[in-house]
Design a protein that fits this description.
single chain, five-stranded antiparallel β-sheet, 22 helices
Length: about 700
Amino acid sequence: MSDDPSDKAGSSAETDRGATDDETVDCGFDVRELSSLVSDHAATLFDSDGTVVTWNDGIRRLTGFSRDEIVGSHYREFFPADAREAGVPDRFLERARSKGRSQHDGWRVGSDERRFWVRDVIVPIREDGTVQVDNPIEDDELRGYAWFVHDRTESRERERELREEKAFVDSILAAQPDILYAFDTDLNLIEWNDRFERVFGYDPDELTGMHPLRFIASPDREHIAAAIDRILEEDERVTAEGRILTSDGSRIPYEFNSATITGDDGTVHGFTGIGRDIRERTARERELERLERVNAIIRAIDETLVAAETRDEIETTVVEEFAAVDGYQFAIIGRGDPVATIDNDPWEPATQAGIDATASEEVFSLFIDSPDDASGESPFETRTVQRYRTLRESAVDEWQSDACDRGYGSVAVVPIVATDRLLGALVIAADEPSAFVDGEREALQEFGGTIGHAINAMAVRRLLYRDTVIELEFESTDRGDVCIELSQEAGCDLSIDHVLPLTDEVFIFYLTVSGIDSDVIRDLVGEIPDITELRLIDAGGEESYWEAVVRDSTITELLGEYGARLQSQVVRDGVAELTVQVSPDTNLRELVGAITSAYPDTRLVSKRTADRPVETRSDFRRSVESALTEKQQLALEAAYHGGYFEWPTRNSDAGEVADRLGIARQTFHQHLRVAQAKVLSAYFGTID
């Protein structure tokens, strides 16, 4: 092809809109005949070497070049530098010749190196001016090429933005921990996210067109269907809960938040929404419900514990309250003798509710004397609540069989303890296999101690207010008791006048010591670690009166666990004689066994029943009045009724009361102190 278009013969001429609108160039063929190959195109012709010979107005507008700038130049000028260096334009021409067409998407450049994205087509032109698209031609048949260019810069940018938006949305959907879904008005599933597939376990081909209720467990379908109706018919935003049904049959609680899909014209096209796994929330709610339930039971029982007269009354109330509440099936309380071995004196049910006596023995034995293949620690050894869950699926055959037969799902064994002394065990069976969660277990642990202390306190009350008590006489040389150790080391006599418990393990002893110097006592006490503090209260003649803080290591501490009371203890040169008072309904065998086990060098000398006179309020007043002189009683009454004892602000001071009585202030103080001492002596039982 010649550089001069006038040398080309052809059937028609092409307007070169790169020059002027009325200028024509005869290139031997009509470019317009090729316009059907692409639409909306800019076109140019170049010879067999790729040199531009003519173009249309679309190319001029697209590239920004004038006719003088581009005609006669190679078409590679429209390519970026890196593409030119790589020989891309030449390969495109060769491909067009050998294949009959070459189509590409890519960057092109115009004037001022302005870049634009195009989809272009290059087709070869034969010597006779004809074009046969997709038919290759030989070099000697090639006359030139037609290049059709479609500017796609804006559409490519829109596509890029759409891709970025889609990638952004996809990333959100991929990161979304919830399931997303969309159904049309015929209730066919049309859209979902990957999480939806993973949760339900279906392949994408299976999901298309599925009905929403296919994903819901049968018991919840009715109210989910009603929720869908409200969405589509009433255009409501709806929140509903239900259990989904996965492909493997699993049921998982979910919360669904859904709304309609509505077009610009208000037409409803379906509904979409989010489903959230609420297993953790449901578990927390159920845990709170269980905890509130057990706390409500405990509160109801606490009222009984305060007023109970007998241990049987306490235990019966406990089992009946648990058995009466939904969620718990039955309750059993058993007792045993912790001094004897389990084999010789097994634990047995004392009372039960929600289950008959024969069955309670079987169940109680199953969880107190666990089967050989059962794992876990004994509640008696750890003094902690033990829970046994999912019993209907238990690997322990005896537990599984009994749970299936009786219909319970889990069991808790609650040790009943008072100051670490085991008084019994409460066995509670719940319907649910996952009952007795941590909070419930902790509440039951505390409750076991509450029952134990209530039983112990009841025994102490009965001891204090009964007319008849059992008195046990013990003799001991066991140095495990600090008072015996102190007497033996000092070679002295001492008596315990009073014991004041500060805590379960710390006591204040008031001691009278005779036959030894007080300085020697101080030195010896420094070598006894269980006496943490010692204070001399009074000393006169051969006797001294002491206050000692003692930690553990006393028979008194053990007696307190059984509701027993140390009536007197006198120690002479390391040999103690103790008188212990207990209520007649105390298990004496257990108490004596506990003492002799903890203090082996101790023996029971005698046991007797003692009557205690009943003292009425009038009796007490008469005993106080008989101990007071007339002046002492007058000073006490004037001080009381005159507001001397009011706090924090007295209504009368000592001078005002003394003036009213017509005595000196010092005399008033003397009478008042003696009177108070006599009243307190009468109350604490030391007045003769």
